[in-house]
């Protein structure tokens, strides 16, 4: 690990003794101290080039992710618009979306605005998986592309087309043949998003 | 000045003589006869006591398991497409980013508590001055005393091997040559074992591989060869290298038939299979030693066995090797360290402690193909050694995963959707 890397880890460890609020200011994401340390080790082990940032290839090196049909979309979520490198802050922010919701009880006093792992933000993450061109709308074309990623070559274009048409028909309320974020939320209001879009970070 | 110089020379001479005599008496001679004074055992016990002390002083931490996945698949009850179907893949993907089963097998295992080696000091904070002092003492002992001792032994062992096997090579083929070559190989490997301060426990020696068989083992480092070959004689298989390795290989093959391939021949699978089968058919030849994983794994798991060695019709003798990581990590991370660097690290660790289990021989059963047989053997080795049995290919260390796995996932998901599709399209047609 580079010198800066060790400095960061040391800062994390010593700050445990300091004011929790001050530490939260440094890393304003809803993760505990030991979770962040663990993620930093993981970040570092993925960073083969040792330059403090992850590239898309670094993610592709994880075999279980490389065989995931939506692997490319998930990797894309870590890279802000137009950028090719994901730093640790961004890495943590994206993963923080998946923290289970009930852990929020500890953070109530510190978060201003909605925490990253709220139901709405989890849904926003999922919405962005579909929204390929980041124009805040899911068009029929985008829906088809994502469907194609998930089914591969096993379903014909016509069948896929009719699935897409049906989905848009059911979700679209304002008649623009696209699904906006609020329509997306409405469609999924009965789904247990908190449970399905959370993973356990052990600490 | 002059008498002082004389005195100095005399002292140096005496200390060298004493040094070498001690070496000879306590290490080399027992190695020749396969005996042991129990010095290494005593050393190990002392180390263990010290490390337990350190652990009690709070230098330990709880290792996290992998992010536990309570994954449910895309729910089969609703087999129409829903926008929430992406959640399953999304969650699996994020879980694999946080922790996955494969990439961590290619780096050294993390320890629960520190063992006073800087190289294992990963995320352990400064505990106390006492620990740092102990660490300093450890450095002095390891680099000042143990390393030179081990280097001397290693050089002795290797040179003896080269010299003696070349000499034996001049003898005519026959029982005498075979007998001598066995003895020489064993002796030199035993010296090398002491050069690494390897403390090995062999279990179930009644299952040791016999002539005409193939011995398969899990692979962690090149030291595996030394560990196995110091307890029995094997025919090695491998690619001819240049330099020192090449010299050793060429002289070894003079004394008894090992199977070395030229670099170009390695790619030709039929040639490799043929040479191995020919060797195995000749019952007078030694059992072949093969590592079917094809690459070094970090000794926490066993990865996919390549089926080539299981296609040859003969008995397979599985062997499980498990290293104790507290005394020094034996895994060779070939992308990080070269061979020389690795050997130096090995020789400056505390010791190499490992257990070897000889498992009962296995043969291919009726109706079983090579891949199933390989998996069966792999499962037996993993079970015995307490290692995780993985289906992933060790080649993923360097290469990309095959697209066929992704296609399998896509197929599975499509099957869930396709069920209702036929129904839908027939409904559409009739309405």
Automatic annotation (TrEMBL), chain B:
Keyword vocabulary terms for this entry: Acyltransferase, Lipid biosynthesis, Lipid metabolism, Membrane, Phospholipid biosynthesis, Phospholipid metabolism, Transferase, Transmembrane, Transmembrane helix
Gene Ontology terms: cellular component: endoplasmic reticulum; membrane
Entry's localization field: Membrane
Source organism, top-level taxon: Eukaryota
Region (Disordered): 58-81
TM ranges: 12-39, 151-171
Chain intervals with Low complexity compositional bias: 65-79
Pathway as given in its UniProt record: Phospholipid metabolism; Lipid metabolism
Domain Phospholipid/glycerol acyltransferase: 213-324
UniProt-listed Pfam families: Acyltransferase
One GO term of the biological process aspect: triglyceride biosynthetic process
SUPFAM superfamilies: Glycerol-3-phosphate (1)-acyltransferase (SSF69593)
Family annotation (SMART domains): PlsC
First-listed, main subcellular location of the protein, grouped into a coarse class: membrane
A molecular function (GO) term: glycerol-3-phosphate O-acyltransferase activity
Stated family: Belongs to the 1-acyl-sn-glycerol-3-phosphate acyltransferase family.
Official protein name in the record: Glycerol-3-phosphate acyltransferase 4-like
Source organism (scientific name): Sinocyclocheilus rhinocerous
């Amino acid at each position: 690990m580079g010198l800066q890397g060790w400095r960061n880890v040391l800062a994390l460890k010593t700050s445990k003794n300091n004011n929790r609020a001050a530490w939260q200011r440094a890393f304003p994401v809803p993760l505990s101290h030991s979770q962040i340390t663990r993620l930093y080790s993981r970040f570092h082990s993925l960073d083969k080039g040792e330059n403090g940032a992850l590239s898309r290839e670094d993610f592709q090196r994880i075999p279980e992710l490389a065989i995931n049909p939506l692997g490319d979309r998930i990797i894309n979520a870590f890279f802000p618009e137009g950028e090719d490198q994901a730093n640790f802050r961004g890495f943590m922010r994206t993963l923080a979306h998946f923290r289970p919701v009930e852990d929020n009880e500890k953070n109530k006093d510190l978060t201003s605005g909605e925490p990253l792992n709220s139901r709405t933000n989890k849904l926003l993450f999922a919405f962005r998986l579909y929204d390929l061109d980041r124009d805040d709308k899911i068009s029929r074309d985008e829906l088809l592309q994502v469907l194609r990623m998930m089914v591969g070559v096993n379903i014909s274009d016509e069948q896929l087309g009719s699935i897409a048409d049906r989905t848009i028909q059911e979700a679209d309320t304002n008649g623009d043949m696209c699904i906006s974020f609020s329509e997306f939320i409405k469609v999924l209001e009965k789904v247990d998003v908190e449970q399905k879009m959370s993973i356990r970070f052990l600490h | 000045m002059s008498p002082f110089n004389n005195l100095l020379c005399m002292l140096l001479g005496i200390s060298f003589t004493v040094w070498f005599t001690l070496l000879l008496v306590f290490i080399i001679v027992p190695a020749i006869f396969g005996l042991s004074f129990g010095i290494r055992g005593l050393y190990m016990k002392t180390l263990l006591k010290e490390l337990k002390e350190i652990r009690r002083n709070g230098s330990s931490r709880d290792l996290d398991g992998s992010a536990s996945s309570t994954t449910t698949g895309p729910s089969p009850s609703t087999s129409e497409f829903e926008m929430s179907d992406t959640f399953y893949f999304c969650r699996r993907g994020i879980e694999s980013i946080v922790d996955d089963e494969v990439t961590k097998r290619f780096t050294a295992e993390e320890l629960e508590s520190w063992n006073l080696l800087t190289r294992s000091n990963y995320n352990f904070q400064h505990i106390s001055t006492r620990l740092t002092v102990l660490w300093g003492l450890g450095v002095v002992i390891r680099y000042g005393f143990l390393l030179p001792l081990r280097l001397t032994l290693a050089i002795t062992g290797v040179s003896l091997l080269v010299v003696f096997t070349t000499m034996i090579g001049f003898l005519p083929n026959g029982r005498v040559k075979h007998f001598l070559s066995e003895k020489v190989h064993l002796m030199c490997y035993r010296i090398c074992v002491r050069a690494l301060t390897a403390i090995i426990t062999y279990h179930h020696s009644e299952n040791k591989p016999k002539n005409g068989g193939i011995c398969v083992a899990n692979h962690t480092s090149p030291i595996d060869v030394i560990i196995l070959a110091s307890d029995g004689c094997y025919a090695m298989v491998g690619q001819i290298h240049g330099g020192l390795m090449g010299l050793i290989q060429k002289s070894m093959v003079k004394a008894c038939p090992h199977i070395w391939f030229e670099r170009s021949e390695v790619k030709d699978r039929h040639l490799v299979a043929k040479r191995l089968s020919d060797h195995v058919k000749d019952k007078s030849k030694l059992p072949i030693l093969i590592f079917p994983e094809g690459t070094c794994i970090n000794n926490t798991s066993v990865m996919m066995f390549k089926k080539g060695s299981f296609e040859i019709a003969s008995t397979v003798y599985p062997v499980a090797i498990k290293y104790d990581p507290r005394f020094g990590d034996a895994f060779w991370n070939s992308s990080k360290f070269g061979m020389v660097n690795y050997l130096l690290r090995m020789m400056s660790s505390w010791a190499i402690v490992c257990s070897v289990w000889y498992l009962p021989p296995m043969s291919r059963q009726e109706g079983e193909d090579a891949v199933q047989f390989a998996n069966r053997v792999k499962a037996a080795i993993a079970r015995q050694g307490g290692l995780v049995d993985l289906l992933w290919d060790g080649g993923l260390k360097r290469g990309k995963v095959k697209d066929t796995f992704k296609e399998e996932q896509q197929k599975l998901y499509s099957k869930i959707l396709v069920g209702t599709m036929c129904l839908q399209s027939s409904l559409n047609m009739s309405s």
